[in-house]
Amino acid sequence: MSAITMEVPALANHLAADSHKMAMPRSAPESAAKVDTVAVGSIEPPLLAGAEPVACNAAAVAAAAEARVEKLNALIRAILPPVIGFALLIGIWYLATLKASGLPGPIQTWKAAMVLFADPFYSNGPNDQGIGWNVLSSLKRVAIGFGFAALVGIPLGFMLGRFKFMNDMVNPLISLLRPVSPLAWLPIGLLVFQKADPAATWTIFICSIWPMIINTAVGVQRVPQDYLNVARVLALSEWKIVTKILFPAVLPYMLTGIRLSIGTAWLVIVAAEMLTGGVGIGFWVWDEWNNLKVEHIIIAIFVIGIVGLLLEQFLIMIAKRFSYENT
Amino acid sequence: MKKFVLVENVGQTFDTKKGKFVALRDIDLSIAKGEFIALIGHSGCGKSTLLNLIAGLTTPSSGLLICDGREIAGPGPERAVVFQNHSLLPWLTCYENIHLAVERVFAAKESKAQLKERTLEALELVGLTHAEHKYPNEISGGMKQRVGIARALSMQPKVMLLDEPFGALDALTRAKLQDELMKICDKTKATTVMVTHDVDEAVLLADRIVMMTNGPAATIGEILTIDLPRPRKRLELAHDPRYIDCRAAVLEFLYDKQADHKQAA
Question: How far apart are CA A208 and CA A193, in angstroms?
Answer without folding.
Answer: 19
